[in-house]
Amino acid sequence: MTEFQCKVILQGKGKSLRIGRYLIQDCIGAGGMGEVYKAYHRKLLRVAAIKILPSRITKNSEAVKRFQREVEVAARLSHPNIVMTHDANEFRGVHYLVMEYVDGVDLANLVKNTEPMSVDKAVWCVLQTAKGLEYAHEKGVVHRDVKPNNLVLDSSGTVKILDMGIARFEEDEDDLEALTKTGFVLGTLNFMSPEQAHNTKSADARADIYSLGCTLFFLLSGKYLYNAKSPIDTILAHRSQPIPDLFEVCPTVPVELNAIYRQMVAKSVTDRYQSMTEVIAAIETCQLVNEDSTLHEHVVDPKLRKFLQIQAVGETSEYLVPLNDPPTISSTDALYETTPHLQPYKRKSRPAVFWIMPVAGVCLLIALLAFLIFRTTESVGTIVLRIDNPDSIGGVVTIDGEEKTIIKQQGVLSFEATLSDAHKVVVTKDGYETFAEELRLHSGRKKVIYVDLVRSQSKVVLLNDRQAAEWAIELGGAVLTDLASTPIREAHHIPQFFMTTGLDLRRTKANDEDLERLRGLNHLRFLDLGETKISDSGLKALHGMSALCYLDIYGTRVSNSAINRFMQAIPA
Fold first, then answer.
1. pTM exceeds 0.85
2. Tens of pLDDT along 479-506?
3. Do 155 and 205 belong together in one domain?
4. Which residues pair with 348 in a beta bridge?
5. Are residues 11 and 127 in the same domain?
6. Which residues touch 444 (CB under 8 Å, ≥6 apart)?
7. Whose C-alpha in 221, 392, 439, 459 is 20 to 30 A from the C-alpha of 500?
8. Widest CA span in the chain
9. How far apart are CA 398 and CA 432, in angstroms?
């Protein structure tokens, strides 16, 4: 039994460890459309990675469609350098995608925890990635989020591309247009091409080439291409700042490689390589890779191999010997890895009296796990109200027409309710819109509802472009216009005629009421609200601002439920 399984069982959620014929072993990450778990197939006796669409999103039909589109994208791709998709299904209302489990470490963590790569290793990793992307592009699929975190080096030295979740078919423009209206940029700013930051819909295979060039820079230096102070500054740097040479971070770089890199990260798409095939040809023509070396010998040196082993099985002071027997469900995570199975070296056996009790304890623990996962249905469930927004304090909670309590603080409130029947939860408060949600409890399960009261809409005086620019600068922020290539931070630099396309309000005193006044800015594409006092009410004020392509709410009081509603409010 894994540590993750124990924690889930102690939380009373043991049944959630079972997804179809898979038994969840660990949480290994989260993507844009769901969480990813390590799981064990009880019939096929193999390990897989499962991406699960969160239950709070399944209520959004558009989100489910996007998840299904991800499945379609992944199903079309079968290449040694791309994580393989095995299956997609639904279990008790839970949508999930089954993928190949990769025993390795992503290149970002590898560089951060060891050191920047040598030229030959970095080039070999980039070449493998380019071949995987070349295959995807030929299938009409653009990744749009190529970065070291999405490239995993397994224990044999093979690079595999992860997270095709935001990859989309080039011809599916209508679906992509809906995604760009989420108010969030598809991709990661430090590795994003200028045209993708401007309009995700316009990004094609050449955007992946740019991102791969940025990745090469990171692998050789451990640094991003531009060390900007804010997200907006990062976007502008990729658009207009000079391209740094590889020589500056790695003096041993050959002139030919620096030339290839500079063409990959050219600002204009017409100045770049026009396909991954051209990138591969350029690298191979320069003979930057020793083709006589095996992949394992070329990439995985002793220091790197040790790091990968630690990632897979953890450090131990015990002697380790190969284990040839097939794994069992009660064994540790290390037994399920794709590397040779390992177990502690067995010392001389002790008398039976010393091992009978431990074995009995293990059996009892397994029985407890089975009971909690497959226990019989109950007649009573629990409605849990989660209150994250302080504006909800003072709200009156009514369930099925019966007043239950008044919200006195942030946290959780629990109420028992019968199964099978439909229930309606209503929360009211003067000056706020009524919160209402209908639900039906499943056997033995808790239903968590995120309560979020927002202020009733009042008449607000909207700001025009100039007023918004002057206001942002007065707060200590910055303005991005259609005429300037850098943020404007002083009022006297504001041009006479312009359109406000971006506001950097990070760490300012901007509040929820202020955001309501921005609704008149029809050309606002970038909005940085990081580390402000913005809450759920403020985010709601941005509903319908379809021009937004970048929104940063890191460090604010915005709750997950408000983000979900924001996503659901996106016009189809």
1. no
2. 999 887 788 999 999 998 899 999 999 9
3. yes
4. none
5. no
6. 15, 375, 377, 378, 381
7. 459
8. 90
9. 15
